[in-house]
Amino acid sequence: MSNGNKIVLSHGSGGKRSRDLIRNLFFKYFGNEILSQGSDSAVFETPAANLAFTTDSFVVDPLFFPGGDIGKLAICGTVNDLAVSGAVPKYLSVGFIIEEGLEISVLESVVISMAETAKQTGVEIVTGDTKVVNKGKCDKLFINTTGIGELDPKFKKISSGETIQAGDKILVNGFVADHGIAVMSVRNELKVQADVLSDCAPLNKLIAEVLQVSENVRFMRDATRGGLATVLAEIVQHKSFGIHIDEEKIPVRASVRGMCEFFGFDPLYVANEGKVVLIVPADDAEEVLEIMQKNELGKEAQIIGEVVADHPGKVVMQTQIGGKRIIDMLVGDQLPRIC
């Protein structure tokens, strides 16, 4: 097979092949006025006095999974990190580390997915980088995305959660654990198929709708690696308050719950890629819930618990069988390489 349809080391050399890959693939699908300048740095204006800045790397295996792929994941992951900070995502950079021998058609499919997702979110990919490594030095394709968003000063404290107080309500926008189970279901080692799609989705528009009805949101975080449980455990760590949640209120699909029980996973710790945990004042909770449920990405939203003065530093769950359980952080990952 010729080198014309596979990535070769010279695609990362900085020479003609590199230029052709950038112009004929990345510029073709990511093209915008800023990117087309082709400079070493993207130059743009922003009126915001406050900016949010984040970066993340994506190494998911396999590259394509039910409901998404590494490209969609890379855009959603960074857009969501900005959005849960209260920012409006604006610009992304993209860095590709490509293994020699990857089929260019595979890379093109990923790039198309990224372009479509970026368009859906309203962000622009304005700069990037490509490196090609020897076969065996990475697993097909790794992607890094860095994002910049405009942050209204009134939302500046959301990411720190410093205004959280007892009585606040905790919400999640839908079913948890879908992403981790969807990815694992297509891995060879499980030898099982599950009719589950990843929840991979951009949350910026849903979050913008929430912030329009409540400027008092105390905290937001997307429940990715470590799942819902880890987010909640991080919130109360070294704090003077605790959290109480109700297992019956936490949305988990029956099929996902069944898979988790079969393999010994706890759905509270399984990664999501389209779930936001919100903490809002009790007076705002029902209105926020109503707004979320009107959005396609929040139809199954629920109020799952509240912040309490009792058991400071601990998350306690009321179980379905009537007992109580401490929710803490895991030492390691239940499911590796899922984002």
Automatic annotation (TrEMBL):
Pfam families: AIRS, AIRS_C
Record-stated family: Belongs to the HypE family.
Residue span, PurM-like C-terminal domain: 165-316
One of the GO biological process terms: protein maturation
Stretches assigned to the PurM-like N-terminal domain: 38-150
Gene3D superfamilies in the record: PurM-like C-terminal domain (3.90.650.10), PurM-like, N-terminal domain (3.30.1330.10)
Domain of life: Bacteria
Xref: PANTHER family: CARBAMOYL DEHYDRATASE HYPE (PTHR30303:SF0), HYDROGENASE ISOENZYMES FORMATION PROTEIN HYPE (PTHR30303)
Protein name as it appears in the record: Hydrogenase expression/formation protein HypE
Organism: Draconibacterium aestuarii
CDD domains to which the protein is assigned, alphabetical: HypE
Entry-linked InterPro entries: HypE, PurM-like_C_dom, PurM-like_C_sf, PurM-like_N, PurM-like_N_sf
